[in-house]
Amino acid sequence: MNVLITAGPTREPIDPVRYLTNRSSGKMGYALAEAAQKRGHSVLLISGPTSLDIPEGVDFIPIESAEDLYQAVESQVGRMDIAIFAAAVADYTPLSVADQKIKKSGDELTLALKKTKDVLGSTRGAMGFKGTLVGFAAETENVEENAREKCIGKGCDLIIANDVSQKDIGFDSSENEVTLVYKDRSEALPQNSKEHLASHLVKVIEQL
Ligand code: CTP
Predict the structure, then answer these.
(1) Which of 24, 96, 182, 201 is an S-S bond match for 9, by CB 3.0 to 4.6 Å?
(2) 62 lies in which domain range?
(3) Is 22 one of the catalytic residues?
C-alpha cells in the first residue's frame, strides 16, 4: 500500500534568525516509516527538521512550516491508501515575518500570531481523502475523551493518544505509552520502545 507519514516539528519563522517550534524529536514518525517500509509498503515521509537519519528505502519530503506541510500533504495524499499524521504542527504562526532581524528595544515584546491550517482536519474534507486516516493526539488531561472528540471531528479511523503529562515517556524519549482511540472503542497499549510500538501500530493500521 502507499503510506504517507508526517513527522517532526514545524518551524514558524519570526524573522531571518528566529522561529517558533514544538517539542518533537520525530522518533515516533520515523519509527513508523521504517516499520511500514519493512512490511513492504511504499512509504513517503514528510518531515520537519530532526536529527534523525531518513530510514532506508523511504521517500522523503523535507518541510519547515505548517504551511509547507499543508502543501506537501495536499499534493501527495490523493495517491495514498493510508495517511498517518505524527507531526507536531505549530497551531499558531507569526502574523507577519520580519524582513530583518528584530532588534532589542523595550522590556517586553508582543508577537501577534494567527492560526495555522489544520492539516489532519483538512484531509477528509478539503482534500477529499478516502483512505485510512490516522492522527496523533498529545493530551495532558481527559486523554480518551479529548482524543475521541478529535477522531470523530476530523474524520479519522484512529487516534493514537499520548498522555504528555507523564514525564519519562513520549517527547524526546525512545519509549512511549499510547491508547488507541477509535470512534466507538479504545485500547490501552503497554509502554514499549517506539520501534516495537511502531511495528505493532503498522499491523493494526493495515487492518483498518
Ligand atoms: N495536526 C495537523 N495540523 C495542525 C495541528 C495538528 O495536522 N495544524 C495534527 C497532528 O499531526 C496530530 C493531530 O493533528 O496528528 C492532533 O494534534 P494535537 O496538537 O494533539 O491537537 P490539535 O488538533 O492541535 O488540538 P488541541 O491543540 O486543541 O488539542
Answers:
(1) 24
(2) 2-95+111-207
(3) yes
